[in-house]
Amino acid sequence: MSTEIPDQLFLDGVLVGQNELVTPGIIAVVLDDDSVHDVPAADLRRRCEELGRSRIRAFLMAPADFEKVRPVAQRHAEEANKDE
Questions:
Q1: CA 13 and chain centroid, separation
Q2: CA triplet 31, 39, 77: central angle to 5 degrees?
Protein backbone atom coordinates (compact mmCIF):
# COMPACT_ATOMS: atom_id res chain seq x y z
CA MET A 1 0.00 0.00 0.00
CA SER A 2 1.34 3.44 -0.93
CA THR A 3 2.13 5.84 1.87
CA GLU A 4 2.39 8.89 -0.41
CA ILE A 5 0.25 11.78 0.78
CA PRO A 6 -1.59 13.57 -2.08
CA ASP A 7 -2.48 17.27 -2.31
CA GLN A 8 -5.73 16.43 -0.56
CA LEU A 9 -6.42 13.85 2.07
CA PHE A 10 -9.03 12.83 4.57
CA LEU A 11 -8.31 12.78 8.29
CA ASP A 12 -11.09 11.52 10.50
CA GLY A 13 -13.56 12.03 7.66
CA VAL A 14 -12.66 15.68 7.03
CA LEU A 15 -11.01 16.82 3.80
CA VAL A 16 -7.65 18.52 4.34
CA GLY A 17 -6.24 20.22 1.29
CA GLN A 18 -4.16 23.02 -0.09
CA ASN A 19 -5.35 26.02 -2.04
CA GLU A 20 -3.20 28.82 -3.43
CA LEU A 21 -5.92 31.37 -2.64
CA VAL A 22 -5.60 30.81 1.10
CA THR A 23 -3.24 33.16 2.95
CA PRO A 24 -0.38 31.46 4.81
CA GLY A 25 -1.21 31.10 8.50
CA ILE A 26 -4.96 31.03 7.79
CA ILE A 27 -7.13 27.93 7.60
CA ALA A 28 -10.27 28.13 5.48
CA VAL A 29 -12.85 26.06 7.34
CA VAL A 30 -15.67 24.84 5.08
CA LEU A 31 -18.92 23.94 6.83
CA ASP A 32 -21.77 21.68 5.78
CA ASP A 33 -23.77 24.70 4.52
CA ASP A 34 -20.84 25.56 2.18
CA SER A 35 -19.95 28.66 4.19
CA VAL A 36 -16.23 29.35 4.55
CA HIS A 37 -14.64 30.82 7.66
CA ASP A 38 -11.07 32.12 7.53
CA VAL A 39 -9.46 31.22 10.85
CA PRO A 40 -5.93 32.02 12.04
CA ALA A 41 -4.13 28.72 12.61
CA ALA A 42 -3.45 29.66 16.24
CA ASP A 43 -7.21 29.93 16.90
CA LEU A 44 -8.26 26.83 14.99
CA ARG A 45 -9.13 24.57 17.92
CA ARG A 46 -11.26 27.22 19.65
CA ARG A 47 -13.04 28.27 16.45
CA CYS A 48 -13.79 24.65 15.52
CA GLU A 49 -15.54 24.23 18.85
CA GLU A 50 -17.53 27.43 18.26
CA LEU A 51 -18.48 26.50 14.70
CA GLY A 52 -19.37 22.92 15.64
CA ARG A 53 -16.95 20.14 14.83
CA SER A 54 -19.69 17.95 13.35
CA ARG A 55 -20.44 20.66 10.76
CA ILE A 56 -16.89 20.84 9.38
CA ARG A 57 -16.44 19.38 5.88
CA ALA A 58 -12.96 20.63 5.00
CA PHE A 59 -9.85 22.49 6.07
CA LEU A 60 -8.04 24.29 3.25
CA MET A 61 -4.66 25.95 3.69
CA ALA A 62 -1.83 27.58 1.78
CA PRO A 63 0.52 25.11 0.05
CA ALA A 64 3.40 25.99 2.40
CA ASP A 65 1.20 25.29 5.43
CA PHE A 66 -0.05 22.05 3.90
CA GLU A 67 3.56 20.89 3.54
CA LYS A 68 3.93 21.29 7.30
CA VAL A 69 0.85 19.09 7.84
CA ARG A 70 2.09 16.28 5.58
CA PRO A 71 4.31 14.56 8.22
CA VAL A 72 1.43 14.50 10.70
CA ALA A 73 -0.90 13.15 8.04
CA GLN A 74 1.69 10.54 7.10
CA ARG A 75 1.90 9.26 10.69
CA HIS A 76 -1.89 9.28 10.99
CA ALA A 77 -2.27 7.28 7.76
CA GLU A 78 0.32 4.74 8.85
CA GLU A 79 -1.41 4.28 12.22
CA ALA A 80 -4.78 3.85 10.51
CA ASN A 81 -3.28 1.22 8.18
CA LYS A 82 -1.99 -0.75 11.19
CA ASP A 83 -5.52 -0.88 12.62
CA GLU A 84 -6.96 -2.39 9.41
A1: 10
A2: 70
What does the DSSP 8-state code read for residue 59? E
For 42-59, the pLDDT digits (tens) are 999 999 999 999 999 999
pTM for the model: 0.80
H/E element holding 16? strand 14-18
Task: State the sign of the Cα–Cα–Cα–Cα dihedral 56, 29, 75, 78.
Answer: positive
Query: Which residues, in sequence order, are CB contacts of 59 under 8 Å at separation 6+?
Result: 14, 15, 16, 17, 27, 28, 29, 30
Q: Which residues pair with 60 in a beta bridge?
A: 17, 28
Q: How confident is the model at residue 11 (pLDDT cuts 50, 70, 90)?
A: confident
How crowded is residue 29: how many other Cβ atoms within 10 Å of its Cβ?
21
